[in-house]
Amino acid sequence: MKRVAHYFLLISLFVGCSGAKRSIQKSTQKVFKSAFYDNQFTGFLVVNQQNRDTLLNFNGEKYFTPASNTKIFTLFTVLKLLPDSIPALKYIERKDTLYVEGTGDPTLLHSYFEHNNTLDFLKGYDNISVHLNNFQDEKFGPGWAWEDYQYYFQPEKGPLPLYGNVTTLWSLSPLQVTPSYFQDSVVQMNFSRNRELQKNTFYYGPSRKDTLEVPFKTDSALTKKLLGRVLGKDVKIAMKMPEGEKRIKYSVPVDSVYKRMMIESDNFLAEQLLLLCSSTLSDTLSSSRVREYMLEKELADLKQQPRWVDGSGLSRYNLFTPESMVHVLSKMYRDIPRNRLLSFFPAGGVAGTLEDWYPGDPEPYLFAKTGSVGNNHNISGYLITKSGETLIFSFMNNHFMRPSSEIKIQMQRIFEEIRDNY
């Protein structure tokens, strides 16, 4: 009798799930056929992680501009290639000189990462020579908007970034500037730009009260000066590293960097993390080499190979399918402990880019990465239903002319129906 009862329980659960699935599919298809979606391109794929059942698939195999959903691929890459702590420097000691080579570590003197021990290590040497010629990327990624050079979200990339490669200005008496090296480079006047295009002249209006972060223009000479000032000693530039085996100095735990990249959607960290991964493959810093490696080795099973050109998603050249996003999210879900994995993603109604959207009932049910660039908004991640199922999804909206808030309202309605009924 127990076997019979168990059998009928399974049958009833199956029928219930099938009925809920059909109901959700029917209502969602009706929404996508409405006039709201007439003049945009939409893709939506939802998969049950436990039984690999596809709940919804609408243009899942089509290519979309992903914006910051690209960071999901970057997260997958760093989880595969980086150790538990950030490799801060490669170095060799020769006689009385420490030769240092940058790895792309974004945390040195970064305002968010306060417990960096790299400076203490460098202060232990009187003679330091820095090698920066291992950087083989461009300072800006392909397809980045050139006019965004002055905005906080598009700092230059580099082998040994300092202060996050941004100048921070805030209004006190007198005006506060970090790094202080640029104190005399700030013009206190209202101007249409935050910085000159080709030089480090910054503008901060006299009536401003906010904190302004402006990327500075980088080069080897500036790196030498900034690092020398903070160390209190002259730093030399080395044209090449001495022969011999390089040792590695580690800095902060990687999870603290990953969380900020994903939750705050930090473009600079995403780009530098790919360079860091490159430093684990060779001494050359090349993000394209890392992307090629991942697509050939770890992601050769993707059904639709993406066009993947940067780590952050700033470029409109990137092209990914919802199916590829779900594929990578599924790989991470299988490989990474659940609590750790979900901690990397903004939680709906709680933190980061999802703080004002998708609130829980009462606990968060959505853990996902957004991606927004003009007329495009996407979100991909994990949805926890009220029945306890974990669904993996990618919802991509491209080329709409409505306010993005209207797109999010429609998405929230669909997510809540799935949460409540599946």
Q: How would you portray this structure in words?
A:
The protein has 422 residues and is an alpha+beta fold. The protein folds into two domains: 20-66 and 320-421, 3-Layer(aba) Sandwich (Beta-lactamase), CATH 3.40.710.10; 86-253, no CATH class. It is globular and about 75 Å long. The two termini are 29 Å apart. Helix 1 (2-32) runs antiparallel to helix 10, helix 5 crosses helix 6 (267-281) and helix 6 packs across helix 7 (287-297). Strands 2-1-15-14-13 form a five-stranded antiparallel β-sheet, sandwiched between helices. Helices cover 32% and strands 21% of the residues. It has helices at residues 2-32, 70-81, 118-123, 220-231, 254-263, 267-281, 287-297, 322-335, 338-343, 404-421, and strands at residues 41-48, 54-58, 85-94, 97-102, 127-131, 166-170, 176-178, 186-187, 202-203, 212-215, 235-238, 247-253, 366-373, 376-384, 390-398.
Order of helices and strands: HEEHEEHEEEEEEHEEHHHHHEEEH
Mean pLDDT: 94
What's the β-strand tally?
Answer: 15
How many distinct helices?
10
- Total number of domains: 2
**Shape type:** globular
InterPro entries: Beta-lactam/transpept-like, Peptidase_S13
Protein name: D-alanyl-D-alanine carboxypeptidase
Keywords: Carboxypeptidase, Hydrolase, Protease
GO molecular function, one term: serine-type carboxypeptidase activity
Layout of secondary structure:
Layout: H1 2-32, E1 41-48, E2 54-58, H2 70-81, E3 85-94, E4 97-102, H3 118-123, E5 127-131, E6 166-170, E7 176-178, E8 186-187, E9 202-203, E10 212-215, H4 220-231, E11 235-238, E12 247-253, H5 254-263, H6 267-281, H7 287-297, H8 322-335, H9 338-343, E13 366-373, E14 376-384, E15 390-398, H10 404-421
Parallel strand pairs: 4-5, 5-11, 8-9
Antiparallel strand pairs: 1-2, 1-15, 3-4, 3-12, 6-7, 6-10, 13-14, 14-15
Helix pairs in contact: 1-10, 2-6, 5-6, 6-7
InterPro entries: Beta-lactam/transpept-like (IPR012338), Peptidase_S13 (IPR000667)
GO molecular function, one term: serine-type carboxypeptidase activity
Pfam families: Peptidase_S13 (PF02113)
